[in-house]
Design brief:
The protein contains twelve helices and four strands, in the order αααααααααβββαβαα. By secondary structure, it is mainly alpha-helical.
Length: about 280
């Protein structure tokens, strides 16, 4: 009797995304999961759409146009250089510099497609410091997603897009640690927190919030009202810590402190005069 073929159930995109997040566990902060996964899904989606359009051109006998941007853009498809294509990322997933290759791919896609200006993360994977083995495994997991069936362009644009007519202002003066007495520097955690704030702001579905004395997202109208000034302090909320101070209570506290200080000073003066007197060098005042 012939053996029946085992039917392998294809995982849903939700299951694949869960597997992706699970592979990141312990390697990066949970808040970073979506940035890592979405960045790779974008590359997979853009790559699949590019290859689909490329095959269409070949099928139509237009091989000589397969490397011309206009023939992709006219169908709302991003043009990709060879090193920006998912096939290239997948092929080089186990290379030591895979993080750099992913960052370069995102950078070049944004460069070649003006509609994406400012929308994609910059040098994110290189700065993240994710273990190359885990990143390679993650690439393999994302590769199992059929983006042409599971993901619509709107799903991508909902997360990575240009913040048109908006500016994020950040005041980093309260952040940092002392360096060589005169300077202040950011440590790794500071840099990650700042980057997380920016990437959160960059996405439509996000948990970004304006934070007093740290960050503020201003629209074009707000900037125009301030004569297009780009000074962060003109937008970021300042907390007036003196506003709710009880002046009378504060002055009474200071009065008591100075009174005690003057009494201590007077006693120290008497003790010092006594010491000189006992030594035979009395000081006359």
């Amino acid at each position: 009797m012939a053996k029946s073929k085992k039917i392998v159930k294809q995982k849903s995109i939700e299951e694949t995304l869960w597997d992706s997040a699970d592979k990141l566990r312990g390697s990066v902060e949970p808040a970073e999961y979506k940035h890592v996964v979405l960045g790779l899904i974008f590359l997979k989606f853009a790559g699949d759409k590019f290859e689909e359009r490329r095959n269409e051109l070949i099928a139509e006998g237009k091989q000589k146009y397969v490397e011309m941007k206009d023939f992709y853009n006219m169908n709302n498809v991003f043009y990709l250089e060879e090193t920006s294509r998912w096939s290239y990322i997948e092929k080089n997933a186990k290379q030591n510099d895979i993080s750099l290759k992913i960052d370069t791919a995102l950078h070049d896609i944004e460069k070649d497609n003006p509609s994406l200006k400012g929308a994609l993360p910059d040098n994110y994977f290189s700065r993240l410091g994710l273990d190359k083995t885990k990143l390679a495994t993650l690439v393999d997991t994302i590769n199992k997603i059929n983006t042409l069936e599971d993901i619509e362009l709107n799903d991508i644009e909902r997360n990575y897009r240009t913040r048109k007519d908006e500016i994020i202002f950040m005041d980093l003066r309260q952040i940092g640690e002392p360096f060589e007495k005169k300077f202040t520097q950011f440590n790794t955690q500071h840099i990650q927190d700042i980057a997380r704030t920016f990437h959160s702001w960059q996405q439509k579905d996000n948990d970004y919030k304006n934070i007093p004395e740290y960050c503020y997202s201003a629209n074009k109208e707000e900037v125009a009202k301030k004569d297009y000034s780009l000074v962060p302090s003109k937008y970021i909320e300042f907390i007036n810590r003196d506003e709710n101070i009880d002046f009378d209570s504060k002055m009474k506290t200071l009065q008591t402190e100075f009174e005690n200080l003057l009494k201590e000073e007077e006693q120290s003066k008497k003790d010092l005069l006594l010491v000189f007197k006992e030594l035979g060098y009395e000081i006359q005042i």
